[in-house]
Amino acid sequence: MTENHGAHGDAGATDNEDLNAQETAATNESAAASMDAQLESRAKNAAGHRRATWWIVAIVAVIAVVAVVAGCIAAFAGRKNDTTGAKANDTVTIGLKLAPTNLDIRNTAGSAIDQVLIGNVYEGLVARDEHNQVVPAIAKTWDVSDDGTTYTFHLNDGMTFSNGDKLDADDVAWSINELVTKQYHDADSLVNFVSVKASDPNTVELKLSAPYANLLWVLTGRPGLVFDKDAKYDAKTQAIGSGPYTVEKFVTNSSITLKANPNYWGANKAKTDTVVVRYFTDDNAAVNALKSGDVQVLAPISENLAEPFTKDSDHYVVKAGDDTDKYVLAFNGTGAKTSDKRVRQAIRYAINHKEIIASRGGSDTALGGPIPSLDPGYEDLTGIYPYDLDKAKSLMSEAGYSESKPLQLSLTYANIYGTEIGDQLRSQLKKIGIDLKVNVVEFSTWLQDVYTNRNYDISLVDHNESHDFYQWADPTYYYNYDNKEVQALYAKAVAATNDDDRDKLLAEAARKVSEDAPADWLFNYRVTTAYAKGVIGFPINLNQTLLPLYNVAYTK
User: Fold this and answer.
1) What is residue 43's DSSP assignment?
2) Which residues contact residue 22 at a Cβ distance below 8 angstroms, ignoring those fewer than 6 apart?
3) Are 260 and 273 a contacting pair, CB within 8 Å?
4) Which residues make Cβ contacts (< 8 Å) with residue 27, sequence separation at least 6?
5) Are the C-beta atoms of 212 and 495 separated by less than 8 Å?
6) pTM for this prediction
């Protein structure tokens, strides 16, 4: 069964056939490169290794997570203007990191497209809020049959597309059927899909062959988007949707200008007439643009580079938002050395997570297991392996190693994460008798050696997508983690017919995974956003994959 977990399909990912060069080039340590995306793209084309089109498609395409800036910045000068005589601007300019190469959301992977188009230009049957929960959108309500196989969506009245065409159940059914028939991007995320039809102009019935607890979540992303079946336009440079904004202008790898949709039907009307999204590959340029007032928001920005803005609280606001990124230190489950559970447990006890988080600015949070706080089934598991050098040394001794007789291990990860984290781990593990060789390589090398050939001891990846627990229930995934009990619990979870049952099963499975120590979860990354005083309504949580802009306004 193919699993796709994430509201945005290939969040940050690219297909092999359509590699997003801009996103790939933008990956660097400060961009926090999540790797789920490109991994998925590779997996989809690997024999016998088909993966969540949505998600893993997150492992490496940088969903942009840790910062839009990475160099040193010159002396900081605060904004000169104050808010005296303030008036609302009709334009807000936002600086982002990852730029889409085109706007064809049906055929082109990448979180950059999802980030700017979903919820702003295109809408789906359902959406998700800043707390990562499914909420109404085109569908105002829905019913689920007792057996979990039939979903009946009741649509809002009086809906239109931006071109004035009426939006009704026929457009919804056509959009989903087109997705499945033509296998548009993320089509395989509709697990157990049988059919979808318009029962009447305001009602859509979707049938499954078996319950799938993540269906609504899947429909918050590309599979649930509704398109105008009668519209003709160049999807690479134009967009006709039903959201609060239209695309007025698109400049490849440079900017997107959004204009308030005069035909918008819903409650989320745009507060600002024009929103300009500018893309910065140069960190200094991005920071200078905020200082000069050329942009009013930067998302994300590293905590270190945000410090001058933090200090100038008269003119700027800096906030860290919650996200679903998990920095996973994976141990090869079938490796000659890491197959020993005592070694894996010792490593977990020996890692000083507080120290690592502090070195990154302190906003990230500790994460003791595979499910972040915004995802179903989350439970605080940090107490399973607290920092305890004595326990770590004892376990290493049982396994036959000590500081005088060290275990030789290699850590391999892509250079998008920089060298500091590897240096920290080498120093921390040396204390318990592990001689850690750190191999910082090109992503292509990591992809071949670690992800494809599974030739590694330890690896580091930022897995950014939400609802991605399926990885731990897949013994063919590059972790080489095979626990039949976890697999059974996960299968029951995705087949659950209510959320409470699903969440309990996921929590139980996550605890077992954590106890097995197939990895250490170094931290849950939090996205830092900096913006000028006077900006309101900009989303702080999840803004690297979810960026609703209808509430954004700026008053000087």
Assistant:
1) H
2) 98, 99, 100, 101, 112, 253, 279, 281
3) yes
4) 33, 60, 61, 62, 414, 416, 443
5) yes
6) 0.83
**Predicted pLDDT of residue 95:** 97
CB contact at 8 A, 10 and 102: no
Tokens 């979808």, residue located: 196
Residue by residue, DSSP assigns 531-545 as EETTEE----TTTTT
Contact 433, 393 (CB under 8 A): yes
The answer, yes or no, to whether the previous bond of 518 is cis (omega within 30 of 0) is no
Q: With CA atoms as reference, report the closest residue to 321 among 283, 365, 281.
A: 365
Helix axes 389-398, 341-350, angle to 10 degrees: 160
Say which residue, 23 or 271, is predicted with more confidence: 271
Tokens of 159: 């809906």
pLDDT bracket for residue 52 (50, 70, 90): very low
Instruction: Classify the phi-psi angles of 500: left when phi > 0, otherwise alpha if psi is within -120 to 50, otherwise beta.
Output: alpha
End-to-end Cα separation, the chain, in angstroms:
53
Q: Which range has the worst mean pLDDT, 13-17, 300-304, 529-533?
A: 13-17
**Paired tokens of 526:** 């939090």
Q: What does the buried/exposed string (b/e) look like for 346-375 if buried means 16 or more CB atoms within 10 Å of the residue's CB?
A: bbbbbbebeebbeebbebbbbbbbbbbebb
Q: The tokens of 200 are what?
A: 């009447």
- Report CA Rg, the chain: 23
- At 219 the three-state DSSP class reads helix
Structure tokens at 337: 């050395």
Domains of the chain, each with CATH number or no CATH = 326-525 (3.10.105.10)
131 by Cβ neighbours in 10 Å (0-12 / 13-18 / 19+) ranks as exposed
The token duo for 217 is: 């979540």
Q: What is the DSSP string of 224-250?
A: GB---TT----TTT----SSSEEEEEE
SS3 state of residue 222: helix
